[in-house]
Design a protein that fits this description.
Strand order of the largest sheet: 5-4-3-6-7-9-8
Shape: globular
Largest sheet: 7 strands, mixed
Strand content: 25-35%
Distance between the termini: 50 Å
Number of strands: 9
CATH superfamily: Vaccinia Virus protein VP39
CATH topology: Rossmann fold
Helix content: 25-40%
Radius of gyration: 16 Å
CATH class: Alpha Beta
């Protein structure tokens, strides 16, 4: 029998559909999110996402952003609200998550423009036929799947970042934040990783590629 915690990793979750609405004040703005069973943190925005969005660095200049593994869209929607002139991509493998994200963009951004794009697929797969590079990629990674899959992303991320781009992500201390930090420093010594903040048992990181 499948573990219920794993449903949100699936393209088609096999749990009974239940839709609800939650609200949350983030970065001094009230957001309303439609959520659905089979999507990560269905009943409330998880603490890791809250810590990330409250402390993530958002360029003041129009940029191209990616919310990778967007769930029902809080990170990408906040980026769209905070930086309305930027282009924001949101990607998730879970089709229910993609549906929720599109609904939540309508609710929170009233957006009919093409500067918010929601794509369905596994990690960077939906971008393989698009010639796009990002100023910043943001992620609350699904470490319950294990660290190995997440750490493999660092091999491909340079292909999707602009020269001055960064990858910002959050890791729970108990889920191996120090291990991830040590691994990146040892495996990619020419690149730079810094801790933006440590809050409520979570560490927020900013990773930059060496372009010298």
């Amino acid at each position: 029998m499948k573990n219920n915690n794993q449903h949100y990793f699936d393209e088609f979750p096999d749990v009974k559909v239940k839709i609800q609405t939650i609200s949350e004040s983030l970065r001094r703005h009230l957001y309303i999110f439609k959520t659905i069973t089979g999507v990560f943190s269905f009943s409330k925005i998880d603490l890791g996402t809250k810590v990330l969005v409250e402390h993530m660095i958002i360029s003041k200049e129009p940029s191209i952003f990616l919310d990778l593994g967007c769930g029902y869209g809080p990170i990408g929607i906040i980026l769209g609200y905070e930086s309305p002139d930027s282009l924001v991509y949101l990607i998730d493998i879970n089709k229910r998550a993609v549906w929720c994200t599109k609904e939540n963009i309508k609710i929170n951004l009233n957006n009919t423009k093409k500067n918010i794009q929601v794509l369905q697929g596994n990690y960077f797969e939906p971008l393989q036929k698009k010639n796009v590079k990002f100023d910043t990629i943001y992620m609350n990674p699904p470490l319950r799947q294990g660290r190995k899959e997440f750490l493999q992303l660092f091999e491909v991320i340079p292909s999707y970042l602009k020269p001055q781009g960064s990858f910002q992500f959050v890791i729970k201390k108990k889920m191996g934040a120090q291990y991830v930090l040590d691994y990146i420093n040892q495996t990619y010594p020419n690149n730079h990783i810094e801790i933006i903040c440590k809050r409520s048992g979570y560490w927020v990181f900013r990773y930059c590629i060496d372009i010298s």
